[in-house]
C-alpha cells in the first residue's frame, strides 16, 4: 500500500481573519469590458437616448448604471442583489472611477422602463378584441435602450472583419420564470418568450423584443425584423433574412418581398423561411413524384434528407395570393427501409419559402445554418450571461434587463474579437471569465498616476 503524502491531509495554511488591505479586486479583468464599453461610445449613447429617465440630478449617470449592469452580466451576476457584490469590490470602484450602484438603486433604475398605465391600456385593448395575447408598444425608455443596443452592434462590427452582407436571423426563445406576473408558455411552464434578431456573419445582436410567455412566435414579428435591418451599418449593401415557421407571417413576408419597403433597406432581401405545413402545402408535398426528390445528405442512422421544388399555389389567407412569386422547396426526411420515426411513419415533410433561385439543396443548407447562429446567441445570453433569469415582477424592468444582457453580449464580442490571444476569439462566457475577467488586480497610485497592477504573467 503506497504511503500517504502528508501535505494532502490538510491545506498548509491558516486563514487570516484580517482582510487584505488596499484597492484590490478579484475581477480586475472587467476593466477590459469597461474600456471596450467606453471606447464604443456607449456612455454618450445612453446619455443621448435615455435622457430624462433619472428623477434626480444626483447619483450615477445613465451610462454609468448601464455600464455597471453590463459588468454584472459579464461577471456572472443573475439578479439585482448581485450588484451589491460588485459595489463591495473596492478595487473595481477605483477602476471605474465610481462605485457601482446598490441593488436597491439598480431596481429603481430598471423599474423606470416599466409603464403600468401603458401596459394596462394594451391589455384592455386586447381584451376588447377578445385576444388573450398581445405585444405592448415599448415605452420611450425601452425605445431609447433599443437605440443603445443598435449602437453597440454597429460599433462592435467596426472592430471585426468588414462585412458587406447582412443576414438577419430572427427567432424566439423561452425563459422560465416563477414570477407571479409570468404567463404560461407553449412548453407547459410559466415564463417569457422574447424575440432576438442576430447578424449571422458577426454573431452580434441587432434587436430584441421582450414578450410575455403566452405570445405566439408568429404574432407581429415584423417590428423586430425591421429594427434589426435598421441597426445594420452603412457598410452592408446586401441583405438576407432567415427564420423558422413563426416568421411565416403575411406582413413580414410582404415587407421582405417589397423592394421599396418602408422603414428598411431598399432593394432585394434574400430570404428563406420555414413554411407552416397546412393541408394545402402538405398535399403538394405528397404529390411530388418519387424521382423528383433529390437526396442531399444521408444521416448517421441512415435517414435520407431530401429536397424537391414544389408546384404549389398559395391558398392560405396569410400567404398573399397576389404577392411577388415565391418559391416553395419541400424537404423530406425518409427513414431507411424497416425503420420508423417515433410517430410510426417512415417519412416527415417540411417546407421552405424563399426568393433565392440556386439549387434547392443550397437554399436548404443556407437556412439550416441559422441554428448555428441564433441558437448559440440564445444560449450565451440566457446561460452565459444573466438574460435567462428575470429579476423583477414588472414587465418593463425585465425587458430592460434582457436588452442590457444583449448589449453586454455585443460588448464582450467586440472585446473577444480584438483580444491578443486568438484562442479566445471563439471562446464562450465561462472560458472568458476563467481566462480574462476573474483576474486579481490592485489599483495603486504612483506619482500622481493611477495604475492597475494585475496578478498575471507578462505572457
Radius of gyration: 25 Å
Helix content: 25-40%
Largest sheet: 9 strands, mixed
Number of strands: 15
3D shape: globular
Instruction: Name the strands of the widest sheet in spatial order.
Output: 7-6-2-8-9-13-12-11-10
Order of helices and strands: EHHHHHHHHEEEEEEHEHEHEEEEHHHHEE
Strand content: 15-25%
Report the structural category: alpha+beta
Low-confidence stretches: none
Number of helices: 15
On the 0-100 scale, what is the average pLDDT?
90
First and last CA, distance: 42 Å
Short description:
The protein is of the alpha+beta class and 459 residues long. Helix content is 36%, strand content 17%. It has helices at 30-39, 42-49, 62-75, 83-87, 90-96, 103-111, 116-128, 140-158, 222-231, 250-257, 279-286, 360-368, 374-384, 395-418, 429-437, and strands spanning 23-25, 165-172, 175-176, 183-184, 190-192, 195-199, 204-209, 238-243, 269-274, 294-298, 304-309, 327-334, 347-354, 441-446, 449-454.
What does this structure look like?
- This protein is α+β, with helices and mostly antiparallel strands.
- Helix content is 36%, strand content 17%.
- It is built from 15 helices and 15 strands.
- It has helices at 30-39, 42-49, 62-75, 83-87, 90-96, 103-111, 116-128, 140-158, 222-231, 250-257, 279-286, 360-368, 374-384, 395-418, 429-437; strands at residues 23-25, 165-172, 175-176, 183-184, 190-192, 195-199, 204-209, 238-243, 269-274, 294-298, 304-309, 327-334, 347-354, 441-446, 449-454.
- The strands form 3 sheets. The chain has a 9-stranded mixed sheet with strand order 7-6-2-8-9-13-12-11-10, sandwiched between helices.
- Helix 8 runs parallel beside helix 14 (395-418).
- The chain starts with 22 loop residues before the first strand and ends in a 5-residue tail after the last strand.
- The model has no long low-confidence stretch (mean pLDDT 90).
Amino acid at each position: 500500500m503506497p504511503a500517504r503524502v502528508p501535505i494532502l491531509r490538510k491545506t498548509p495554511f491558516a486563514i487570516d481573519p484580517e482582510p487584505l488591505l488596499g484597492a484590490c479586486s478579484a475581477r480586475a479583468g472587467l476593466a477590459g469590458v469597461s474600456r471596450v464599453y467606453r471606447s464604443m461610445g456607449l456612455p454618450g449613447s445612453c446619455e443621448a437616448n435615455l435622457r430624462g429617465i433619472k428623477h434626480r440630478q444626483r447619483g450615477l449617470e445613465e451610462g454609468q448604471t448601464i455600464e455597471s449592469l453590463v459588468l454584472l452580466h459579464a461577471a456572472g451576476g443573475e439578479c439585482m442583489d448581485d450588484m451589491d457584490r460588485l459595489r463591495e469590490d473596492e478595487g473595481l470602484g477605483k477602476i471605474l472611477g465610481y462605485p457601482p450602484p446598490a441593488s436597491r438603486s439598480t431596481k429603481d433604475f430598471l423599474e423606470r422602463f416599466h409603464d403600468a398605465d401603458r401596459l394596462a391600456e394594451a391589455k384592455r385593448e386586447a381584451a376588447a378584441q377578445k385576444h388573450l395575447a398581445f405585444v405592448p408598444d415599448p415605452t420611450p425608455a425601452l425605445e431609447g435602450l433599443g437605440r443603445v443596443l443598435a449602437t453597440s452592434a454597429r460599433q462592435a462590427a467596426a472592430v471585426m472583419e468588414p462585412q458587406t452582407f447582412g443576414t438577419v436571423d430572427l427567432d424566439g426563445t423561452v425563459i422560465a420564470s416563477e414570477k407571479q406576473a409570468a404567463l404560461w408558455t407553449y412548453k407547459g411552464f410559466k415564463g417569457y418568450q422574447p424575440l432576438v434578431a442576430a447578424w449571422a456573419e458577426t454573431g452580434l445582436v441587432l434587436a430584441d423584443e421582450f414578450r410575455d410567455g403566452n405570445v405566439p412566435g408568429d404574432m407581429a414579428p415584423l417590428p423586430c425584423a425591421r429594427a434589426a435591418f435598421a441597426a445594420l451599418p452603412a457598410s452592408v449593401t446586401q441583405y438576407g433574412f432567415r427564420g423558422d415557421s413563426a416568421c411565416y407571417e403575411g406582413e413580414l413576408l410582404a415587407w421582405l418581398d417589397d423592394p421599396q419597403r418602408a422603414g428598411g433597406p431598399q432593394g432585394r432581401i434574400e430570404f428563406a423561411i420555414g413554411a407552416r405545413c397546412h393541408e394545402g402545402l402538405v398535399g403538394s408535398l405528397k404529390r411530388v413524384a418519387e424521382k423528383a426528390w433529390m437526396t442531399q445528405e444521408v444521416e448517421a442512422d441512415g435517414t435520407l434528407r431530401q429536397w424537391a421544388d414544389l408546384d404549389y399555389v398559395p391558398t392560405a389567407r396569410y400567404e398573399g395570393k397576389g404577392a411577388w412569386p415565391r418559391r416553395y422547396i419541400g424537404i423530406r426526411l425518409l427513414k431507411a427501409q424497416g425503420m420508423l420515426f417515433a410517430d410510426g411513419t417512415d417519412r416527415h415533410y417540411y417546407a421552405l419559402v424563399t426568393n433565392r433561385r440556386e439549387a434547392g439543396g443550397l437554399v436548404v443548407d443556407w437556412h439550416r445554418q441559422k441554428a448555428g447562429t441564433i441558437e448559440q446567441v440564445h444560449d450565451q445570453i440566457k446561460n452565459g450571461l444573466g438574460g435567462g433569469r428575470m429579476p423583477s415582477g414588472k414587465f418593463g424592468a425585465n425587458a430592460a434587463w434582457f436588452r442590457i444582457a444583449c448589449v453586454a453580449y455585443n460588448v464582450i464580442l467586440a472585446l473577444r474579437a480584438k483580444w491578443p490571444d486568438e484562442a479566445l476569439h471563439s471562446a464562450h462566457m465561462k472560458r472568458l471569465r476563467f481566462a480574462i475577467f476573474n483576474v486579481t488586480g490592485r489599483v495603486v497610485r504612483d506619482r500622481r498616476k493611477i495604475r492597475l497592477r494585475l496578478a498575471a504573467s507578462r505572457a
